[in-house]
Design goal:
210 residues; Lipoprotein; 1 helix; 35% strand
């Protein structure tokens, strides 16, 4: 189970669809935008507007350095794609997954095909599943940490309209092993791997928005 925390705590506001037109998107495409905030176990801000200038080059207990990055996945909204493992199945992802750099606090996926048959709000538009996840990148590999290490928001269902911005607002991540006051203390990322230790029961239901 990957890290999930109650959406009411972690997501500032609800997902909105922006009204501004997008000059770079076609008539059958939109844009998905997300901001994020990393906090330590005491909910002190790490980045952005926190103790660090980025989420790059944390110290691992092996002496290696690792990065925290954010990954955005836009997937089809059906039962087969609704789990962390399911969205990786063939046919689930709508666009190529975006993994944003560790010195960023905002990410954009574009162009994203419209989610409904007519490009207008309605019951016939199922929307997409939006997964916003943290990645630990160490050496030549990366993985989504377990909930015993990092808490993250659950998936959200949002519609994508032609020439519009689908705003996922601010996704907040709680990096439990890190303390703002500890400086560059080493962190054992092996304990962050899924299945490495008992995980907290913090799975949230999918946020379907307003």
């Amino acid at each position: 189970m990957k890290g999930r925390l109650f959406a009411g705590l972690l997501v500032a506001g609800v997902g909105l669809t922006g009204l501004a037109s997008l000059t770079g998107c076609g008539s059958e495409e939109g844009l998905v935008e997300v901001y994020w905030q990393f906090q330590d176990g005491a909910l002190e801000p790490i980045y952005p507007q926190g103790a660090r200038d980025d989420t790059c080059e944390f110290l691992d207990s092996t002496g290696l350095r690792f990065n925290l990055r954010v990954q955005l996945t836009v997937a089809e909204n059906d039962a087969a794609c609704s789990t962390d493992e399911g969205y990786e199945a063939a046919g689930c992802t709508v666009v190529v997954q975006e993994a944003f750099e560790c010195n960023r606090g905002r990410g954009v996926a574009e162009p994203v095909p419209i989610s409904g048959p007519n490009g207008t709000p309605g019951e016939d538009d199922p929307g997409y599943l939006m997964f916003v996840e943290a990645l630990i990148e160490i050496g030549d590999e990366s993985f989504v940490p377990s909930s015993s290490c990092l808490l993250a928001p659950g998936p959200r269902v949002r519609q994508v309209f032609p020439g519009r911005i689908t705003d996922l607002e601010v996704a907040q991540f709680v990096f439990l092993p890190y303390s703002v006051g500890s400086g560059d203390a080493a962190i054992d990322t092996e304990l962050c791997r899924p299945g490495a230790s008992q995980e907290m029961d913090t799975e949230t239901e999918t946020d379907t928005g307003p």
